[in-house]
Amino acid sequence: MSVPRLLGSVGVRHRLVAVDRSFRRLLRDAAKRQGGRGSRVAVAVVTDRDESPVRRWVARALPRASLTVVAPGDGAELHVRLAAAGPFGLIVDETEGGGAAKRARRLVFHLRAGGVLLLRRPRPGTPTVTRGRPRRREERHLADLAADVARGASQLAPRNPVEPSDDRERFGQAVRELVLRDGHVALVARASAYAEIREEQCNRLLELRPDLGRVDLVLPPVTVRARGRIRQSETEFPREFPPAWDVPEMCLREYHDVVSTPGQILTAGSLLLPDTYRHAALRRPRSRYVRDLAPGFADAGTPPEFTAPVPASGMRRLRGTYFYLDNEYRGHFGHLTTETVSRLWAWERAKELDPEVKALVHVSRRGGVLPFELDYLAAGGIAPEDIVCTDDPVVVERLLAPTPMFSNPAYAHPGLVGLWGSIGDRLGARAEDRERPRHVFVSRRSSLRAVRNQGQVEELFSDLGFAVVFPEDHPPHEQVRLFREAEVVAGFRGSGLFNLFFAGEGKRTLLVGSEAYTAHNEILAAGLLGHDTAIAWCVPEATRLDDGRWAPRSFQQPFTVDLDREGRFIRDVVGEWTGAVGRGR
Length: 585
Description:
This protein is of the alpha/beta class. It is built from 16 helices and 27 strands. It folds into 3 domains: 3-192, Rossmann fold (3-Layer(aba) Sandwich), CATH 3.40.50; 195-219 and 246-412, no CATH class; 415-419 and 428-578, Rossmann fold, CATH 3.40.50. Helix content is 28%, strand content 24%. Strands 7, 8, 12, 13, 14, 15, 16, 17, 18, 19 and 20 form an 11-stranded mixed β-sheet that branches. A 6-stranded mixed β-sheet has the order 2-1-3-4-6-5, sandwiched between helices.
C-alpha cells in the first residue's frame, strides 16, 4: 500500500494533500509560515550528508535565520544540540539512512507553536542502515504518525501519562496539522514545549550555551560498595539490593538569569533544567508540578496553588548570588533530610565564590521555612538570615545549583558520611546529657501507609524492651541524640527513621514495612554507614500486575503486620541483637 493510501486509511482529519509536488514546494510553504526572507527564525537541519542541499536552500530562502546543522547519530547529543539552539520555527530532517518518521516523535517538540517539521523522503535507490524492508517500515511509521495525529485531535484534555503508550497520544495532541506531498511530510506544532535537560547532559549544554552559565566545581564519579548486612523476612517477592552502586559526577553549576518557580521548577527560556527533578537519575524523571509530554519534553508553569500575581513590569529579579535549595515537597522532613541536605556539600564552595551568597527556597503547601528546617540547615552551615524564601517566580541573576548527593533509589555519595556526621554533631551537642533508651521503636501517625494493627505492633516491641517513640514529638536536637544513643533502632519504614543518617556509623536497624514501599532511602544510608539492617516485609492492600509490578498508587497503601510470620522474624532478630525474647525474658 502506498504512503498516501496508508495515511488516508487511518482517517486523518487534518489537512492532508497527496499530490505530486516537489519537496522544495514544502520548503517554500514552511518558510512563508515563518515570515519569509526577513524572518529571524531559528532553523535546524538534521542531515547525514556531507553536502546538504537543504542547508544551501535555507540560507537563500531565509538569510536572516539562525541555522543549526546536526547529525542524527547520538540521540542524546541531538537532543542537547537542538535544545540549546531552539525552539525552532523550522526543522528539516533530510536524512537518507531511515528513521526519520520515528525521530519525528521527538523533533516536533523542539518546535515553537506554529513551527514546521519536514521529513524528506529518501531518493529511490538510496541505501539505508535499517534492516528488513526499510521502505515499508518507513511507510508504516508514517501511517502511525498520521493515526496518532488523528486521535490526538479528539483527545486534547491534559492528562499526565503514566505509561509509555500515552506518548503516542501526547504526540498526536502536539501536532496541529499534517501535510503530505509526494511522500514528503510536514508536521505543524500546536504549542511550544520545554526541553528537559538531564543531569548528565547539562555540562554539555553549558558548553554550547556559555551565556547560560558554567560549571564551577566537579567531583569525579565513584563506585560505592555497601557496608553492613541486610537480611529479609519471608516474602513471596524478595527484594534484591545491589552490593554496590555507581555515583555519577557531582557538579556545582552557575546559571545566569534563570527563572525559579515555586514547586522546584527551574527554567531557562525553553529549557527545563535538571535541578527541577528530585530523582534526576531515573530514566523518566517526574514532578507533580510538571506535565510530562514525551521522553525529554514537558510542560511547566507556575503551580496553581503557588500562583502570585506577576506585576505589569514583569517578573521580579533577584540580584546577586543565590544557592538553590528549593524542593518539590519543601517543608516535609523526609525530603529535607534526603534531597535538600544532600546539596549542602557545595555550600562552602558557594561561600568562596561569593561570601554574600544566599540560599533560595520558595513557599510550599506548608508555608514558609519551618523551624525544623532552619535547625537542620543551620547545622549544615546555612544560618537563618542567609535563607531567602519567595512566594512568586523570580529571575535569578546568578544561581549556584549543586547536584544532590542522594538520589533514591539510585545512589548515595560517600561524601554524605562526613556531611551527615557534622550535622549530627552540631545538633546533638544542643541536647542535654541524660540517660536515653538503648532500644527504640519509631512509630508513625500518618494515614499514608497506615498500619492496620499498629497498636499490636507497638505492644510487641514494647514487650521486647523497646521504647516506643514518635520523633515529631521532640525537637530536632533531641531526635538526633535519641537515635545516636540507641544501640538498636526499629520502626515503620519512612521518614521517621531518617535521623539514622545523623546517628553515626554501625547501628543495628530493624525496618517494618509494606512490600509495595519501594523506596531505598534507609538501605542506601545503611550501605554508606555500615548499619546492619533487618527488614520485616508485610503484605499490603494492593494489587500486583501480571508483570510483577505493583499497580499504580500501591506505594502508600495500608498494610498489616502478620504477628505470626513477621512477628517470628522480629523476635528472632531482636533476640539475636539484644537477648530479649518477650515476656518472661
